Amino acid sequence: MRVIRVTADLVVPDIDEAKAFYTGFLGLDGQDMGLDWVTRVVVPASGEHIQLLSRDASGPENPVLSIKVDDVEEAYVSAQRLGYEIVHPLTTEPWGIRRFFVRAPGGSVLNIVQHHDPTE
What we know:
Blueprint: E1 3-11, H1 15-25, E2 29-31, E3 38-42, E4 49-53, E5 65-69, H2 72-81, E6 86-92, E7 97-103, E8 109-115
Parallel strand pairs: 1-4, 5-8
Antiparallel strand pairs: 1-5, 2-3, 3-4, 6-7, 7-8
């Protein structure tokens, strides 16, 4: 398994208010994800980004980071083999990702994710 991207997940009480702050004040670009509970703001020059979420749509806890990997099944098996707590099982979500949540040492919940191709 190889990590492709790491994204900070900031929990906010009001998505629209937070998006206005990051786009209006900081000048980041808004990126609509087509979901009412999460959006992304992007640094125009570099593509670095932050996800703003009000709550996770299917997980029992909100993650602090989303880690995009090239093989989520391998990551899931590895996390289980190493004895890490699986907070949300490996799931194919209706919005097009396959993911699970794992608790890192120290208690942070990480969203381990791979984009899912429904034709596979």
